[in-house]
DNA sequence: TACTTAGTTCCACTAAGTGGAACTATTGAA
DNA sequence: TTCAATAGTTCCACTTAGTGGAACTAAGTA
């Protein structure tokens, strides 16, 4: 849409990062050709970059299948980086407790640009299926967790976000955001996919800004309106506790 | 000592990786000057590389202190990479059980070049102090976990390794490795530091090679010779179970 | 006020990185 | 078995992208 990466940045490095960016949970293994097509780069160049990445353990090449995957070095760096995500560590015990109390999946979202990313997740132990994975990007305008963040951004930001919302839903969303600002909690029924519902609440930082939200989600069958109302209260309390831990002084 | 990185590799990319390599558990925050000194690179170049890294979320710059730290992107990639470390996932339940049975710290080491890296670790819940951290590099020739791996490498490899061992200890080590090859288990008393002792055993892969070991470690006061003997048996059994899961067909 | 230290910006130079072409290895269809 | 198609690797001449020094700004320090 606007600014970011385009053009700027050291080309060689940017391309290498693009390579790493190709790997996802869904596609953790890629061949040389797949990669070079994905980032539109000559195979020779791609090979060379991959070689350096491999030498340093950022990617790993399977000698038999010739497929690449992300390497151990990234895992180790990830462990170091993890420690520096403050809110994650703060929220952890609260989220775990909420999961245990409700037996439903509890998720922490962070605002990143005009999206939210799942940073931490405590799944209901029994549900094998993981709906959202750590690192996954989701929209702000759909789902309880997104709306809880969106409602507390400034006008320009929200206005811009509304442009990506399909027509008639815009009106409805505006009203909903106003309510969220009042109640400090949000909900959603089958919004981001059929059969998934949830409740969420904003996390305030020391400056009173909202850069994160905590949400409970699960199958719509279990999330009846009155249950959701209860969950809204619960998650709101938890989010406030976390906010306070982070130095937020505001009212409940 | 020998081969690896020197010279080869795309310079720009290699330098960027070197930058990321500067960050450790002990020093997770660095200033521009610290980094540029550490990797001996002009400040201007370092700045430019850091800018691209920051744009992509591989590092994060604190606006106030101007210090850099590893970014969220690395954490997310780390999560993807984690899934592909097969032995780690396989060993997990076994290691957890061993920790619960013994109440001591259980660690998984992987052979990386001529070192071992800690890949997974289940600490005895009560001991706050973490002796070894995930991603940390340790020598092969000291400590039970190292010797368990070293004993099963080929002659050339071991010979070369012995050159880094202080004088008179060499003889002793050679004999010890022979025993380890017989018993499939190793031990150590105060070897890698005063007050730390342990027992370990090799993990065999489907080809019968040893690229990993599992170890139990803790304060020497608790690790009396007969306790260690018991632990050696326990960890040997666990390592064999993991080896079997990985497709190892060999004898116990 | 002058001095030190840290980070940023600018720009001319050239070696580092590039991509196409040629080559090899592998697969599978005829 | 041969041929064609596909995937990965190697080579090399070209030039643009990346470099580092110098100049500049900002924030301490004495």
From TrEMBL, chains A, B:
HTH iclR-type domain boundaries: 10-72
Boundaries of every IclR-ED domain copy: 73-248
Coiled coil region boundaries: none
Gene3D superfamilies, per the entry: 3.30.450.40, Winged helix-like DNA-binding domain superfamily/Winged helix DNA-binding domain
Family matches, as Pfam families: HTH_IclR (PF09339), IclR_C (PF01614)
Keywords: DNA-binding, Transcription, Transcription regulation
Alphabetized GO MF terms: DNA binding; DNA-binding transcription factor activity
CDD domains the UniProt entry points to: HTH_ARSR
Any one GO BP annotation for this protein: negative regulation of DNA-templated transcription
Keyword Transcription regulation: yes
InterPro entries linked: ArsR-like_HTH (IPR011991), GAF-like_dom_sf (IPR029016), HTH_MetabolicPath_Reg (IPR050707), Tscrpt_reg_IclR_C (IPR014757), Tscrpt_reg_IclR_N (IPR005471), WH-like_DNA-bd_sf (IPR036388), WH_DNA-bd_sf (IPR036390)
Matches recorded under PANTHER family: HELIX-TURN-HELIX TRANSCRIPTIONAL REGULATOR, ICLR FAMILY, HTH-TYPE TRANSCRIPTIONAL REPRESSOR ALLR
Function: May be an activator protein for the gylABX operon.
Protein name: Glycerol operon regulatory protein
